[in-house]
Amino acid sequence: DKPAGVAVHGGSGVSRGVIEEMRLSRPTAKFLELVHRLDRETSGVLVLAKKRAALVELHAAIRDGRVKKLYRLLVLGRLPLGRRRVDAPLAKYLLPGGDRRVKVSEDGQSASTVFSALQHWGRFTLVQAELITGRTHQIRVHSGYLGHPIAGDDKYGDFAANRELARQGLKRTFLHAATLSFDHLITGKNLRF
User: How far apart are CA 16 and CA 68, in angstroms?
Assistant: First the structure.
């Protein structure tokens, strides 16, 4: 259950992330690796493998679409209730200062997200997002592509709205990895975290 603001691994000015902290807290563990990543700003379910065989099989399950990832997000504006699928290719690029970003581009990799607008709260909408593909910043970029950026998103959001939210004490990206499910590698029983 990764908190928002914590990196999953060290680098880019971060000395230690979740994986390094977990290895330090479990010095007798022979193997411990991240199965997938979450953005630093994203909270929620993060899976680590304690065996190489499990890591390899879980990577294959993710590639084959056998892992289901559901996210909850709060977006700006009143997205019409119901379900919609966004199929928009994503391409990475660098800003002049060296920061990496992602944009919708015909030259990008295929990317698909299913958004389900669940409830309106004033000028916001609570949304569930299901990743069909797993590209960098996919939900954040696709949400903005719909015209409804994620509240508090400091890279792809509405900066004026984010400043107003911060003045009210809401200082994070409202994106949460709510559930992750897959079949157990040995028993076949469905696991849902």
Answer: 28
- For residue 63 the two structure tokens come to 């590639």
Catalytic residues: 39
Calpha distance 176→1 (Å, rounded) = 10
Q: For residues 22 and 33, is the Cβ–Cβ distance under 8 A?
A: no
| β-sheet bridge partners, residue 177 | 44, 71
Segment 94-112, tens digit of pLDDT: 999 888 999 999 999 999 9
Residue 30, classed as helix, strand or coil, is coil
First CA to last CA distance, the chain: 10
Residue 26's Cα: distance from chain center in Å?
Answer: 26
Q: Which residues contact 6 (CB under 8 A, 6 or more apart)?
A: 17, 18, 40
Q: Is 29 helix (H, G, I), strand (E, B) or coil?
A: coil
Size of the chain, expressed as the number of residues it contains: 193
Q: With contact defined as beta carbons under 8 Å apart, do 112 and 132 qualify?
A: yes
DSSP string, 120-185: EETTEEEEEEEESS--TTHHHHHHHHTT-PBTT-TTTS-HHHHHHHHHTT--S--EEEEEEEEE-T
Which residue(s) pair with 181 in the sheet? 68, 192
Rounded CA separation 171/166 (Å)? 5
At 14-66, the pLDDT tens digits run: 778 899 999 999 999 999 999 999 999 999 999 999 999 999 999 999 999 89
